[in-house]
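User: Please predict structures.

Assistant: First:
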Amino acid sequence: MQTLVQILPIAEEHIDSYRRCLDSVARERLYLALVEAPPLDSIRAFVLSNIARGIPQFVAVVDKEVVGWIDISPSSTNASDIAAN
């Protein structure tokens, strides 16, 4: 039986599940600088701010549970500044 993975723009309904997924990955202490997810209120503010500002953030969802994510946050660093260093 194949697992259906949906890639969706993050929505308010994904916030709790997104935090659980983030917390799980953070506790692995391998891929993130975090060792646990921030509080739910902070996650909610981050996600809702991204949605309001149109910042791309997508989640991978299996059976209504977030199993992965990506967000593309703008940087104040100019690419030419990085290349010059």
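Second:
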Amino acid sequence: MKAGRVSRPLSIACAAALALASLAGCRQAGAGWLEPLKTLEPGGTPTNAAIEELKKGIDRYQAEVDRKVSAAQNLGVYWKMLALKYVDNGMYGLALDALDEAVAVYPENPILFQYMGISAARTAKGMVADASEQARLFARSEAAYRRAVFLDPAYVDALYGLAVLLALELGRTGEAEPLLDTVLEKEPKNLDALFLLGRIAYSQGRYEDAVECYDRILAAQPPDALRDQAARNKQQAMGALYEAP
């Protein structure tokens, strides 16, 4: 080794030794560096009685914390149940208020956001005299559905609900189709998605695609009412196809 150069491992070892020596010197000189670790408050080491009292306090407040957490959980469940009751009875505005409360407790529950999407859209449809409020509610519905899908990308109900909103309420069929394709990848016999996809294809003049959708519905052997509707829609699409130039 050349003079004047110190290897890296040796330098690290020397630095460590110096640090230890310095720390030892501080301990000898100050002798008080451990005191804050021995006491909870100024005045010396707590007695056994004081320690027991502290433990009792911890137990008491821990029980209070557990009680409050349990109460919050129960409150969230009650708000969710109330919201679903409102939805079942067509009281969508009140459902939105209850869902806001439930989401405050469970902000990562995709089901709550899916119902929020439904409630906001249904409330918006009633706002025929207030275009700005209707637009706000439709935007809220879209945001809620997208939040539900973000939290659970495989959530078919939220995917379909968002597709319905985009296609039928907002006129954005180009954004709705990929969502329906995703639904049908997961549930190839989802009749609601097939009907909506057929409707979109027909509205765009893609009559062959519409016929294919209705054929898929008929092949699934749906209930009589749906079978008859699919047959009528197919006949209409075929007629448009033959009449097309």
